[in-house]
Amino acid sequence: MTTFDVVELARSLIDIDSTTGSEGPVVGWLADWLRARGYTVETQPVEGERCNLYVTLGAPVVVLSTHLDCVPPFFPSREEDGLLYGRGACDAKGIAAAQVGALERLRASGETRVGLLLVVGEERGSHGAHAANRVPPGSRYLLNGEPTDNRLGAATRGVYRAILRARGRAAHSSHPEQGESAIEKLLDALVALRTLDLPVSPTLGATTYTVALIDGGVAPNVVPPHASAEVNFRIVGRATTVRTALNPLTHLVGIEDVVEVPPVEMVTVPGFDTAVFPFTTDIPFLSAWGQPLLFGPGSVLVAHTAEEHVRIDELRAAVGHYTQTSQALLERSED
After folding, report:
1. How far apart, in whole angstroms, are the C-alpha atoms of residue 34 and residue 139?
2. What is the pTM of this model?
3. Which of 201, 216, 217, 301 makes the best surface tag, with the fewest CB within 10 Å?
4. Residue partners of 305: CB distance under 8 A and separation at least 6
5. Are 105 and 256 in contact (CB under 8 A)?
6. What span, in angstroms and rounded, lies between the C-alpha atoms of 304 and 118?
7. Which residues are catalytic, by number?
8. Nearest residue to 64 via CA among 77, 52, 73, 55
9. Which domains does the chain have, with CATH numbers?
10. pLDDT tens track for 108-150
């Protein structure tokens, strides 16, 4: 068996473009790599030719998990000043490599009760997680990997995404009084949104939101008959409480629910710093895989950016952290 190097594996994964929807090449490459090292690798169909990888040596009590898809645009790996750059360096191909490294160490010690789930589609719709949750292995703990600066997550926020849709009446722009501008209605709603009291949690803080997409109008010389905005809320409780808070906007816009993901509280183990994170993960969609934990090298502040990177020493340390956490969970399962 060849010597394992976490940076080498991470760079191999990063250098294969796996923008969400196009994960096939990286899934195939890694499946072959893992099988060549003696792991049992099962594929879980997701959508079309897209599939997850489920990696085992025995019956798992603990399953490490993360995702192999990335946001666009793709850019390859490079090492510079102790940092590993590239799309997926911290979100989440570096994490996948560190989790494989933990499996290698555990196997070398004779431990076979830890598995690995690598899903597709986390960045857009969590299709891989939904598919995996239909075929749980009976594991007791799920240690999910996202960039947390090598801290254990105590909790994460959820997501509520909605479309605010305004309706107007078209008219020639030389006679705007004959029409009704949907764009002006939408703008009034978005200004009013700033004044609303949104839910606050003592643990997770205040609900935040981003007006992420805006669309409207048909031509520059026509009073716009329609306009819409997609708003992404990072929620700290039930999505219905945010939806209720938006009721004052309904005289201006219709509100359509798009996505709801609940906030989650996680399991922790001694010996690690913990933190609450404002992002969401696949964990809510993998409930059948065991009690959740969240941990990973790298910072979410550089994920999805043109300078995505992870510190190489942090990446190497994560191998030991995943190993240590898995061993602690195995001991806990025996109590």
Report:
1. 21
2. 0.88
3. 301
4. none
5. no
6. 19
7. 122
8. 55
9. 6-156+264-334 (3.40.630.10), 158-261 (3.30.70.360)
10. 999 999 999 999 999 998 999 999 999 999 999 999 999 999 9
